[in-house]
Amino acid sequence: MEQRGLARLRLPGLLALLAALAARTPRVSASGDLNLWPLPVSLKTTPRLFYLSPGNFFFGHSPTSKAGPSCAVLQEAFRRYYDYIFGFYKWHHGHNKIPSEMELQKLEVSVIMDPECDSFPSITSDESYTLLVKGPVATLTANRVWGVLRGLETFSQLIYQDSYGTFTANESNIVDSPRFPHRGILIDTSRHFLPVKTILKTLDAMAFNKFNVLHWHIVDDQSFPYQSISFPELSNKGSYSLSHVYTPNDVRTVIEYARLRGIRVLPEFDSPGHTESWGKGQKDLLTPCYHAREPSGTFGPINPILNSTYSFLSKLFKEISTVFPDEFIHLGGDEVNFNCWVLDMISTMKKRSIVWQEVYDDEGKLLPGTVVQVWKMGDFYKELENITAAGFPVIISAPWYLDVINYGQDWRQYYSVKPLNFAGTPEQKQLVIGGEACIWGEYVDATNLTPRLWPRASAVGERLWSPQEVTDLDDAYRRLTRHRCRMVRRGIAAQPLFTGYCEHEGRM
Amino acid sequence: MEQRGLGRLRLPGLLALLAGLVVQAALGTRRTQTPRLSASRDLNLWPLPLSVMTTPRLLYLSPRNDFFGHSPTSKAGPSCAVLQEAFRRYYDYIFGFYKWPLGSDNIPREMELQKLEVSVIMDPECDSFPSITSDESYTLLVKGPVATLTANRVWGVLRGLETFSQLIYQDSYGTFTANESNIVDSPRFPHRGILIDTSRHFLPVKTILKTLDAMAFNKFNVLHWHIVDDQSFPYQSISFPELSNKGSYSLSHVYTPNDVHTVIEYARLRGIRILPEFDSPGHTASWGKGQEDLLTPCYHAREPSGTFGPINPILNSTYSFLSKLFKEISTVFPDEFIHLGGDEVNFNCWKSNPAVLRFMRNKRFGKIEKLQSFYMQMVLDMISAMKKRSIVWQEVYDDEGELTPGTVVQVWKKQNFPMKLSQVTAAGFPVILSAPWYLDLISYGEDWRQYYSVKPLNFAGTPEQKQLVIGGEACIWGEYVDATNLTPRLWPRASAVGERLWSHQEVTDLDDAYRRLTRHRCRMVGRGIAAQPLFTGYCEHEGGM
Predict the structure, then answer these.
(1) What is the dihedral sign for C-alpha B68, B72, B75, B78?
(2) What pLDDT is recorded for position B97?
(3) ipTM for the assembly
(4) Which residue positions are annotated as catalytic (chain B) (predicted)?
C-alpha cells in the first residue's frame, strides 16, 4: 500500500477505513503507478486491479445524490470524461472476457449539498471530493458539482491501458481539496488577439490541471477587442480589425464553457494607464500631453479631471459587471487617487476589486477586501508580508511570468516556489488566496500560446492545488512527463519537458 | 524608382541588360501617371533580392488557369514535374487562400497581368536533385500583359516563383495587384540550411514536410537531417532492421524507406537538398541496442561496468558494419554529401577499456584524440570510396589537421567562432557556420535581431579563405522540441538566418528587416505555417491558426 501527500482528511473516516481494508495483493502495477497531476491531498492505492470496458461503463447519479440528469454541469462532464478515458483509442474491447468481480462498471456520483448546477463558480466554491475506486461501482462524493468536476479529472487520470490495451484502474481511495482557492491563468488578448477557439482550448487544459480562474486581460494599449454594448466605438475603432473582436456572444460562450469546467472568468479592464486603444473610440477620454506648453498631439493615461471620464467609466463598468458574472473585476491600476474613485464605484455595483500591486504600493487607502496582485519579481516575499500585514488578500504572480522564456526546464523553478515562505502570522498566510501563471501577449498569439503555456503552467497548477509538502522534483518530473502526454492525447499541444516520446502523439 | 541591394549580377549580362531596358521603357511612359507607391506594396520581400527595381505602375491579376506558362523558347515544358508542381503550388499561395474569386472582366486590359511566362535557358535539370553547385539565380520582369521569369535552371525558377508570389498583394478592394518591377537575384551562399533533430524527439513526416514548405518560403536549400543520436534510432535500415526495431522509441516512431523517399522527393520539388547525418563515434547509444558489440564496453576498476561508450574503434566488425550501413545511406540519400558528425566524443570509456588501450599502444597512438582521428579517417575513406563527400563537426578538425581535402567542417561552438573560421579556412577546408544560430536556445524577446546581425565573413582571412565559407545552418536541436512546438519556435526566427545567407552582405537595416519580416511572417501564417509573432500586432489572415 502506498500513500502520497498528506492524509489531511476532510471526509468521513469511514471511507478511508474501507479502502484500507480493501488492500490485498502485494504488487503495484508500474504503469498504473500514480500519474496524477496535481497530486491529491490523500491517495491510497492497492495492487488490486479493476478493468473497464468502454461498452459497459457509464457514469451515473447516486440515488441519494442531490444532483440528477437535469444538472448540465455533470451531464456535460460525463460525456467529456467518457471521451477522455475511452475516446482516443482506435479499438474497442468486448467486455465478455472481464470476470465480473474484476470489472468496474460504473462511477456513481453523489452530491451531498445543494449541487449549484446552475450557479457560477466563485472564490468560495467547495472543490473538495472523495473518490473510492472499487468494483463493480466506484463512487465519487462531493458537496457541490465543483468537487465532482475535480474528482472526475482525477478519476480519468487513474485509468490507463495495460499492455493488452485493456482499460485498467487500481483500487484506490482519494480524498482531495485545493490548497488555495484562487488558481489562475492570465491571458492577454490585447497585445495579440486570441481566437475564441484558442481560449476554449486553454480552458480545457486548465481543467486538466485543476485551475479555476481565467484572468482575462482583455484590453490594453495595443487593441480593444471587447465589443461593448454601451460603447461600440471602443472596439470599432480600437480593435486591430473587425475580425479581431469578442462579440457579446463570444464572451458568453467563453463564460459558459468555463462554468461547465468549474472555472471563473475574471475580466480585467486595466486603467488609467494601458488605455491607448480606448482613446480611439472615446473622445476626450485620454489626457492630452503637453510639450513646451503646447499640446504635443500625444495622449497619456485616462484623464482623471473630467466629469465625462467618470460617467463613461461608470457606464462601462456597469456593463462589465453585468456581462461578467464573477464577483470580482480586475481594475489593473497604477494611480491611486483615480483608483480610489473606481474602487468605490465597483463596490456600489456589489462587486469586489482586484488591483495590481502598485495601487497598494502608492499608499492609497484601499477599500477593505480589495485583493492585491503581486507581480514584481524583486523581493516579492517582502511585498507579500507588507500587504498581508495591512490586511489585504493577495494573489501571487511574481514568480510565474511564463511569457519570460528560457532554455531548459524552467518549470522546475516555477514548481519550487513556496508561496507562503514570507514572514508573517498565520492570519497573514491565510490572506494569500492563491496565484496566477501569466502568459503576457507581446510575443504570444494563437501560433505559440499552447506549447508555451503547457506544461509549464502545470507546475504552477500543482503548487497551488497540492499540499505544500509535495515538492519532490524527481517525482514531479516523472508524473508531469506523463501528464503532458495525457494532455497531448487530449488534443493540447503541450511541449515536451525533455527528450522522449508519447505513445499517442500522432495527432500533433 | 527604388533600388535595393547591390547590382552584383551573376546572370548572363544580356538578360540583365534586356531587363534593364524594359524597365526603363516602362518608367518613361508611366512615371508621370502614378506618382505614388502604394504603401502596402512597399517591398514585403523576404529574403531581399540582389536587385529590385519597382515602378509605381500597378498591374492587376485574376486567377486564371493558364496563369503560369512555359515560354516557347524555354528548355523546360509541361513534362517538367518540378515546374508543373510549383505552378500549382504558387497558384494556391497567390490566389488560393482567399474566399472570393474575382472576375477579370472589370480589369482594363492595359492594366492586366495575364500570365507569368517561365523560361529556362540551359538544361533545366527537371529530373535531377539539387546540389551544392545548383544555379539558383533568376531574373523576374513583372509587366503587363505577360511577366517573364528567366533562369538557367529550374532551381532559379523555384526561387523566382517565390519572389513573384511575394510581390502580389490584394488592394483594399480585394484585387490582386503587383507593381511593375524588375528583379535580378542570386544567393550569397550556396549552402543555406536548417538542422532538425529527429532522435531527441521524433518528428512526424508531415511536420518535416511543413518545415520544407517554410524553408522554400525563405529560400533555404538544405535540410540537415540529424536523424539518429543517443536517444533513438528512427531510421529504418534495410541492411540492419534491428537498429530501428530495437533503437527507436517505438515502432510508430520510425522513418520507413518510403517515408525517407517521400521527404527527399518533396524537398527536391522545392529545390532543397536532404543532407543526412549519421553522427558517430559518439552520440550512438541507440545504435548499440540493435547491433551487438558495436559500442565500447566501459570498465570500472578493471571490470566491465555494464555501460557502453562510443562506437568501438578497434574491432574489424565495426568497420564492416559501418561500411555496409554507409553504403546503404549513400544509395538512399542522393545528395553528394553525408554528414558524419564526430562531435562531443566522450573519451573516458575508451580510456577505461584495456583492449582499447592495448590497441593504442600497438598503433603507437600517443593521445586518445589519435584514436578518434583513426576512426574518423576510416569512415572518411569509406565515404570517399563511395564517391561521396563528407561533412564533420568542428571537433574532427580540432583533433587532427590531416583531414581528407574537400571535407567540409561545420563550426558550431559559439565561443570565438570567427577565430575558428579563420583557422579552418586557412587550412583550406570549406566551412559551414552554425555557431551563432542555435535556435533551440530560446530567450525572451526579439532574438531574431541577433541572428540577423551576424556577419559570417567577419573574420581574419584572405579573399580565398572567405570563399571557403559555403554557407550556414540554423539548428533547432530536439531536446526540448517536438511536433507540438517546432514550427512556432523555428519560424520566423530562422527567417533571419535565411536572409543573412541569401541576401547581399549590405542588407543589414534592422528596422527595414523588422517591417518586412513582420509581413513575411503573416504571409507564412496565411500559408499554413504557425510562425510565431515578432512582437505585438496582428495578421489579416490569421484565422487558420
Answers:
(1) positive
(2) 59
(3) 0.88
(4) 344
